[in-house]
Design a protein that fits this description.
Layout: H1 3-10, H2 14-30, E1 39-40, H3 42-49, H4 53-66, E2 69-72, E3 75-78, H5 83-107, H6 110-125, H7 129-145, H8 150-173, H9 175-193, H10 197-221
Antiparallel strand pairs: 1-3, 2-3
Helix pairs in contact: 2-4, 3-4, 5-8, 5-10, 6-7, 6-9, 7-8, 8-9, 8-10, 9-10
Length: 236
Amino acid sequence: MSPQSRTGLAGARPGNAAETAADAIRAALTTGELRVGAPVREEDWAARLSLSRTPIREAIKRLVIEGILVRDGRTAYVFQPSLDDLLDIYNVRLPLETLAARRAAEQGGPELAKGLMERFKRIRGRQTDNDWYHDHEDFHLFLFAGAGSPRLSSTIATLRAQSEPYVRFAVTADLKFRNESNTQHREMVNLVRKHDGDGIAALVEDHLMRTRRELDKLMAAGWTGGMVPPIPAKRG
């Protein structure tokens, strides 16, 4: 973060500073800098963002309410879903994301299609995993914002933040899955250009179900790599 940005944060009003801090923590999760199960400490983020601990504390409270962080005593941690949690998140995401995509395609104009194509080109050209994940998330959230419902977009963004780290695992483990995902992103752009609400709703559903199947496959084979695996499904 630049010195100018730090100065701006330090001089921000408390409410705005808390919002900025929450956005910074969300971004660290999306890029993989913050891993599931990792602690999020007030003092660390206050020093990082040149803020007092008050807006950091407020940001953490907001993220706990959103379900992105959980508390264990006085320390907050990045939410680590169980297998049951993860599958439930996908079950909830499915109708919301297909609804948002349908609305976006039917209502969106040339600027939506143009913005999506620009984001797709960035995804396609990325060589490093963290850049790919960041642009992948930006692509989908830009599409859903085209639905014109901030409440719907915000709910989807929260659910995606809870499950996106595991998508990172799936994409890293299977290059074919990643390439197929990129093909679907290109088709989403085409469907927005055609205002094809039914078509993009069906494609987004398939996109999510492919990811769920990939996660199921990886969990059946055993998780590897530098990320904490999901807690096993509850029994009984």
